[in-house]
Amino acid sequence: MSIKKTTVAYCESCGKERTLEYRSNRKPSPLCMSCNKKGSRNGHWKGGITKTSPRHNKVENLIKCHVCGADFTTTKSYSKYCSDECRKKAGRTKYLDNSKRYKKSRRLREKLAVGSYDMVDFEKLIEMVGYKCPRCGNKLEKDEFTVDHVIPYCDGGSNDITNIQPLCWLCNVQKNTRSDRYIPYSIYEQLTLHSV
Fold first, then answer.
1. Fewest CB within 10 angstroms: 70, 92, 146, 196, which?
2. Strand partners, 165
3. Which residues are registered as beta bridge partners of 4?
């Protein structure tokens, strides 16, 4: 069991006299309360040191903006843009470049795809499914259907009517590149018999 002791001491930093109460198993601080607060900065106790150096020295770097080419200073070494406006502009140009690349590759795949269909066949297919989306069952107008390839172009799918199914926009997006057929093949057989 520790016993409380009382003593008079002088602060080593400012020289103020103070009365200390401490337990015998703990040594009292050599500094008064106000000097202790000066010594602790950034939440770290630095003992009797009144001035502490910051933990991280931030160095300002001179960087050239990737969009407008202006020089700017920053403490972050990974910065690429001088402002939010330049950052947004870079995002837009990246999006446009990617969409152009995608459209170009899709047009090339369409040219190389085997088979073809016309809109008359597609409209007959819509009639045969009863103006309902085969995936979700929602009733739609004729112009609300989208052309979906059962086996997508990217997987080597053809452009023949037997590889096409009418889906609503949401179902077409959710299907993505999966090869799911929602219309029975017998409907395609009926369609080819009608067209002959």
1. 196
2. 148
3. 23
Per residue in 55-103, pLDDT tens? 556 778 888 998 899 999 888 878 888 999 998 998 888 888 888 888 8
What distance in Å separates the CA atoms of residue 171 and residue 132, rounded to the nearest whole number? 12
CA distance 29 to 54: 24
All residues at 6 or more sequence positions from 136 whose CB lies less than 8 Å from its CB, including other chains:
168, 170, 171
Residue 131 is classified by DSSP as: S
- Three-state DSSP class for residue 171: helix
Take residue 123 and report the two structure tokens written for it. Answer: 């409209």
Residues near 118 by Cβ (< 8 Å), separated by ≥ 6?
none
pLDDT tens for residues 150-169?
998 888 888 888 899 999 99
Tell me the one-letter amino acid at 137.
Answer: G
Q: How far apart are CA 166 and CA 134, in angstroms?
A: 8
Mention every residue, 6+ apart, whose C-beta is less than 8 A from residue 133: 140, 145, 166, 167, 168, 171
Q: Which helix (H) or strand (E) holds 9?
A: strand 4-10
Strand partners, 41: 44
Q: Which two tokens stand for residue 70?
A: 């202006």
Q: SS3 of 180, please?
A: coil
Residues in the chain: 196
pLDDT in tens, 117-140: 888 889 999 999 999 999 999 999
∠83-85-88 over CA atoms, to 5°? 115
Token pair listed for 106: 């899709």
